[in-house]
Amino acid sequence: MHYDPAMSSPSSTVINLRTPPAQRELIDRAARLQGKSRTDFMLEASREKAQQVLLDQALFTVTAKQYKAFVALMDAPLTDNAGLKRLLARRAPWEK
């Protein structure tokens, strides 16, 4: 996932956290290694995890016949698809 500088605009909401000192030290150490403030490091990590969780919520259930047809399509040679090329050339919504 890409970091979106637009997401780091001036804040309008406060998030307060309490953490054991050892966790804070761990976070601070990692943030320093990346040259980031604690806030920027935590917001980026939280945003990436939130996106991952939301994207992982897709569950598809299929019959054996449907699965076999899906596998056959996946194993078939690629054909030229202009619409797919246009779609893959666009940025994902979470990267805008």
Would you give an account of this structure?
The chain is mainly alpha-helical. The chain has one domain. Helices cover 53% and strands 0% of the residues. The chain has helices at residues 21-33, 38-55, 64-75, 82-89. α1 (21-33) crosses α2 (38-55). The N and C termini lie close together (11 Å). The mean pLDDT is 88.
Distinctive features:
0% strand, 96 residues, single chain, 4 helices, mainly alpha
> Stretches where pLDDT falls below 50 for ≥5 residues?
none
Tally of alpha and pi helices: 4
The dominant shape is: elongated
What's the pLDDT, averaged over the residues? 88
| Range of strand content | under 5%
Structurally, how many domains make up the residues?
A: 1
